[in-house]
Amino acid sequence: MVSPILELKDINKSFGHVQANKNINLKINKGTIHGIIGENGAGKSTLMSIVFGLYQADSGVIDINGKTINLKSPRDSIESGIGMVHQHFMLVENFSVLENIILGFEGELVFGKNLEKAKTDLKKLCENYKLNIDLDSIIGDLSVGFRQRVEILKSLYRGAEILILDEPTGVLTPQEVDELFKILRSLQEEGKTIVLITHKLNEIMDLTSEVSVMRQGEMVGHKKTNSTNKEELAEMMVGRSVLLRINKSTAKNGEVVFSVKNLVVKDDLDVTRVKNVNLEVHAGEILGLAGVTGNGQTELLEALSGIRKIESGNIELFNETISDKNNFLDPRSLKEKGLAHVPEDRQRMGLITEFKANENLIFGYHHQEPFSKSSILQEKNILSFSKKVMGEYDVRPNSPNLITSNFSGGNQQKIILSRELNKNPKVLLVGQPTRGVDIGAIEFIHQRLIDMRDKGAAILLVSVELEEVLSLSDRIVVMFDGNIVGEKVNKNVTDRELGLLMAGVV
Amino acid sequence: MNTVVDRSKVPWWVANLIVPFVNLLLALLVSGLFIFIAGENPIQAVQLIIYGSFGYIEGFAYTLYYTTNFIFTGLAFAVAFHCRLFNIGGEGQAYIGGLGVFFVAINFTFLPVPIVWLLAIAGAALFGGAWAFIPAYLQAKRGSHVVITTIMFNFIAASLMVFLLVDVIRDTNQMGPHTVAVAKELWFPTFKELAQLFGIKIRYSPLNLSFLIAIAALFFVWFLIWKTKWGYEMRAVGHNTQAAIYAGISPYKNIIIAMLISGALAGMLSLNEILGVHHKIVAGFPAGYGFTGIAVALMGRNHPIGILPAAFLFGILYQGGSEVTFDMPNITRYMFIAVQGVIILFSGALENLFRPQIESFFVSQLNKEKAV
Fold first, then answer.
1. What is the residue extent of each domain of chain A?
2. Is A352 on the interface with B (CB under 8 A)?
3. CATH class of A4-238
4. How far is Cα A202 from Cα A220, in angstroms, rounded to an integer?
């Protein structure tokens, strides 16, 4: 009989009237890789934040090695041997790896003995777990995959026996994911316990030995991974059976709607991010743009949507130039031409998180009737519209007056989608439509995109999720280092093939 | 113990009434300590403040006269702040606004009086707004921070007005730096005159028609910020400029509009001072109201509903404070500037000092009640 290293008993936590965790019981055995899977807003991250001491539970008990502990802050958790790698890394970009790791644990006023000791300890850890990190490199120069390893190293150095990883693969290429999994397996072999929070079923099947499923704040089941399968887990997560691959007819290619010629775009720091891109998007098709984050997709989308000016080349919409090196149409004019845009980063761009949901549901359309009449906002119309679309898109809770930051990520995304798709746009730019969104909602969002396509919209889909690009697109182009490095018709393309293109190998 | 309170569980009246009240009480306690150290009885001082600002009708009218100025300058700061602009140039904008009022009052005497008044309001707004325009343009186009430019524009305004008042528009029949008086029929009716209509005889106080304009301005700002497309766009730019650009809202345009309206509101302070009280431009008439308006806006959380009581509170302090300095030889005018400072400190800078404790106290009390 193995004794659990971490045991949670009857954990409850609510935010306002939303109960994020309801009577959660969980046992995690030493030396296992334990998956926690669930839709977004199911309460996985909240639960693990409680374990890491970021939040305090309203009630319940946390035992580590059979001893009840009281976690008031992350420092308490670190001392109890818990480490966490967050979805968004907590690293200082212009510090070196070493500086980042000892940050807060310097232990001396003037660096000397302790620093040297830390260096030797860290080198040993790197070797043991084959992390392959140069301690003196600057974080800003490292790829996302390496930054994640630095986070892992940081936790290990601070004595973590239990390592929690929150959606660790969201930002990685398939090759980087393989590397990460190797590292996690070697950690397990050394007796560390790993808790993997994810909503990707493949990862659970590949990596974990046990899996716990959460739904709407409750723990709905625990399984041995080798005695379950994807379909069963998906059903537990959503509460009904799910189509993992979307059924869609073949595209009826129409005329060219969007055409991009020799496009060059610079970012805010004057770095050329889009180097020479040529693209065409037809009516009635979904063009998937795959690529690892940071290879120019963001700047490309911003240029196409009228947010960013271009250096050279030109962009045509319905055979009319909308952007060249001298002029570009602004987002409002483009909207009037039938272009809608779901931006990649919903909190930075798609929403004003301080606004009420109803204010965000008209964002960008607020000046049009029926939302405004002679510049005065028509509250009644806005509210009834909000109620209606929030119902259609199953935004939970259906409270148009709730401040947007109180909605979960997936529901925030639905707010944006309902706003942008509502007008039946002729052209749709979509960036990461399902980033951080749960399976049930993914299925729904995908279906809406396919519907839009079937109605004849031209859709450009930018996503780092290969699964998503593969299941939605009619054609796929891959972007690497500011260039389009490959174009495939979506038939018999494997994710391995795309992965190699994304990594710039071929 | 460092408790984290779940903000969503805190009732609105605890966050918005109890906490400010406790902060104010603390500020008054510390101020009382000052007065005690200065050798006077704090309790007596409080009694004097209350008597001075409420105790007799003229005193109360003085309180409302000060309140008028603070409403204008508080609103001015708040409007810009909704677009995340720190307009601390209210002082200069009010000063220049005076030129607009004076210009109208001198040149349009041939029109019916109410029309001249309306034009004077427009003149105050136009000149105050114009003085805010240059910093606004520099912020929007060049990214020059408005905090710096508006501060500098206060000095420029002060120098410009001294120049004008000495060399250009001075009443040359005398030596003081002020203009001739505007025509008597254009003077705003005062509270005293209003009382006379009802047969009540009271002594002079500076309270005048501007107070009603200030109340109207409160409604105007509330409507603008929360009920119109423009307010919506300003708030959007203020919260998240990138998102605003994405939605086709021009930060450039909104920065300019917000600053123009802000400057216009500050400019309207000159209505109170010129048409209401001095009846001419006198050097230095904004007298620091522009700066105190910042504190009023912060204390009132940049919302008209908060700005009204905050302006009133500062009105009480100004009026009651001057009463105290009359009666207590050890308390100087500067003492009351210190008291204002303490209030700003507690309700502005240290606003969150006791918030967690107060909120967690009320939350746990309410939970207990529920449990019973």
1. 4-238, 254-338+427-506, 348-422
2. yes
3. alpha beta
4. 19
Question: Each residue of A145-166: b (16+ CB within 10 Å) or e?
Answer: bbbbbbbbbbbbbbebbbbbbb
CA nearest to A330 within chain B: B248
Same fold, A4-238 and A254-338+427-506: yes
Kindly report the backbone phi and psi dihedral angles of residue A259, in degrees, each rounded to the nearest multiple of 5, phi listed first. Answer: -135, 130
Structure tokens given for B212: 């009603």
The CA distance from A194 to A143, in Å, is 23
Question: Does any domain span residue B180?
Answer: yes
pLDDT tens, position by position, for chain A (506 residues)? 467 899 999 999 987 667 789 999 999 999 999 999 887 667 888 899 899 988 888 899 999 988 898 888 888 888 899 999 987 788 888 899 988 888 877 666 677 777 888 888 899 888 888 888 888 889 888 887 888 889 999 988 888 999 999 888 877 777 888 889 999 999 999 889 999 998 777 888 889 999 999 887 889 989 999 898 887 887 787 665 555 566 677 777 789 999 999 999 998 878 888 999 999 999 999 999 988 777 889 899 999 999 999 999 999 999 999 999 888 999 999 999 999 999 988 888 999 999 999 999 999 999 998 999 999 999 999 999 999 999 999 898 889 999 998 888 788 999 999 999 998 899 999 998 987 677 778 888 898 899 999 999 999 999 877 778 888 999 999 998 889 998 888 777 877 777 777 766 66
Domain residue limits at B220: 68-301
> Do residues A182 and A145 make contact, with C-beta atoms less than 8 angstroms apart?
no
Count how many domains chain B has.
1
Tokens, residue A496? 């391995």
Q: Assign domain A254-338+427-506 to its CATH architecture.
A: 3-Layer(aba) Sandwich (3.40)
Reduce the DSSP state of residue A190 to 3 states and report it: coil
Q: Contact A355/B8, CB-based, under 8 Å?
A: no
B248 in reach of chain A (CB within 8 A)? yes
- Do B282 and B178 meet the contact criterion of CB atoms below 8 Å apart? yes
Nearest-CB residue to B246 (from A331, A376, A379): A331
A363: left (phi over 0), alpha (psi -120 to 50) or beta: beta
Of residues B8, B229, B248, nearest to A372 (C-beta): B229
Which chain B residues contact residue A363 at CB under 8 A? 236, 243, 247
The answer to whether residue B229 is domain-embedded is yes
> In chain B, what is the straight-line distance between the N-terminal and C-terminal CA atoms, in Å?
26
pTM reported for the whole predicted model: 0.77
Residues of A in Cβ contact (< 8 Å) with B242: 348-349
Residue type, position A356, single letter:
K
Residue A367 has its nearest CB partner, among B2, B229, B242, at: B229
DSSP A221-284: EEEEGGG--HHHHHHHHHSS---SS---PPP---SEEEEEEEEEEE-TTS-EEEEEEEEEEETT
Q: Which residue in the set B229, B240, B243 is minimally distant from A377, CB to CB?
A: B229
Going by C-alpha positions, the residue among B135, B140, B174 that lies closest to residue B156 is B135
The ipTM, to two decimals, is 0.86
